[in-house]
Design a protein that fits this description.
Elements (H helix, E strand, L loop, with lengths): L1 H18 L4 E5 L19 E4 L2 E5 L4 E5 L1 E5 L6 E3 L2 E5 L2 E5 L2 E3 L22 E4 L2 E5 L13 E2 L14 E2 L11 H6 L9 H12 L5 H4 L7 E2 L10 E2 L50 H4 L27 H39 L3 H32 L8
Parallel strand pairs: 5-14, 7-13, 11-12
Antiparallel strand pairs: 1-8, 2-5, 3-4, 6-9, 7-8, 10-11, 14-15
């Protein structure tokens, strides 16, 4: 029975991964609390997009903690935020990491509010390089931001504070064909500011559900990572009467099941890295040892591990394969150096221009994307070479 359940779980994970439009970050056996009720802080400046708050899971603490909703500078004009979401499948709750892209994808039908009512986004739109805000669902000061409009939104979603899709008591929603097509578009993972924001929330004991019982002291912030000060907004109330984790089904707190990406938090690695065959050297898929996310800058990357020497039993073939490995290793190290030099030049240029914080954040987000995309490309190249160099099996 244990083997059958394991195979069933793997099957469900494969089905969900193929059709669920965002990489799976973690899975556990305890459902998240209801979404707290809170007010949206004012938008700090033009170009910032609202990213709703959500319950994240801390493997070390063995419980949920609240990541406040916040305004985040879009990584590039035209990109919108598809929120992450919890869904029930294969006997576990799965977290689907949010992403940036040209369209809003499926986010579980969860009503996060402020324009994210379970389907699409009603909070604003891009017109060229400028984002226009719908003031009926967003807190925007027209003295500072002039790109606004007013459109009444008819919310057909049942108003509740349920924070997950499927299962007992969850939202009953499935993606539309259009939302499924958006999953195949080019996506950008959460930017550095979002990763740091999540880490700041995880480091604050007051954000844990065992302390706040579903009513976090900081439910939203005007800027990512700033959980203190005037820009931090407390929850007005919990989204539903609080129930202890053991009453929400599953195993005891602190005993999550392993997921496709069992890091210590929901911080994602570059997308689709595992979809090209094989596990990445040194990553949890191969040895279950947690590894920190890819650095934001190329200069902080660790040198690649050299692959094991080929051993096909054919000395000439092994020599040829070793030359191919050495050539690829040298080329990837050159890529690291070139990107590191380019990023450093851009940093120096910003300092010389005395650029403002918004411009600096845009460049930091670009550097993070460049670094992650390069690492993803290198991983795929290594895996492709390893597959080509596998000794052929001959039937007896």
């Amino acid at each position: 029975m244990r083997i059958v359940r394991s195979l069933l779980f793997v099957f469900v994970m494969l089905v969900v991964s193929a059709s669920s439009f965002a990489q799976i970050g973690i899975s556990i056996n305890i459902g998240p609390p209801a979404l707290p009720v809170y007010e949206q802080p004012p938008c700090p400046a033009e170009g910032y997009i609202w990213t709703p708050g959500y319950w994240a899971w801390d493997n070390n603490a063995g419980e949920y903690y609240w990541v406040p909703g916040t305004w985040v500078l879009a990584p590039q004009p035209g990109f919108l935020w598809t929120p992450g979401w919890w869904g029930w499948g294969g006997g576990v709750f799965l977290f689907h990491v949010g992403y940036w892209g040209p369209h809003i994808g499926f986010y579980g039908g969860i009503n996060y509010g402020f324009g994210y009512f379970g389907n699409g986004y009603e909070g604003g739109r891009w017109e060229g390089d400028h984002f226009f805000y719908n003031r009926t669902v967003n807190n925007v000061n027209v003295t500072n931001i002039h790109n606004v409009y007013n459109t009444t939104v008819i919310n057909n979603t049942t108003v509740n504070r349920v924070s997950y899709n499927g299962g007992n008591g969850g939202i009953n929603a499935r993606p539309t064909p259009q939302e499924e097509s958006y999953a195949n578009e080019r996506h950008v993972p959460p930017v550095a500011a979002q990763t740091q924001h999540e880490q700041a929330a995880r480091s604050d004991p007051q954000q844990r559900e065992s302390v706040n019982h579903g009513r976090p002291p900081v439910a939203a912030t005007d800027r990512p990572g700033e959980l203190k000060g005037s820009g931090a907004v407390p929850a007005k109330e919990a989204g539903a009467p609080y129930r202890a984790p053991t009453e929400r089904g599953g195993t005891q707190p602190g005993h999550p099941q392993n997921a496709a990406r069992p890091e210590n938090s929901n911080v994602p690695r570059p997308p689709n890295a595992s979809e090209h065959g094989g596990a990445q050297p040194g990553h949890p898929e191969s040895n279950n040892v947690p590894r920190p996310p890819v650095p934001n800058h190329a200069k902080d990357l660790q040198p690649h591990e050299r692959p094991a020497p080929p051993n096909t039993g054919n000395a000439n073939l092994d020599k040829k394969y070793q030359q191919q490995q050495d050539k690829l290793y040298q080329k990837q190290e050159q890529d690291h150096q070139k990107l590191a030099q380019k990023q450093e030049q851009e940093h120096q240029k910003l300092e010389k221009q005395q650029a403002n914080d918004a411009k600096k954040q845009q460049v930091e987000q670009k550097h993070q994307q460049q670094t992650q995309q390069m690492e993803q490309k290198h991983t795929q190249q290594q895996q492709h070479m390893q597959q080509k160099q596998q000794p052929a099996s001959h039937p007896k």
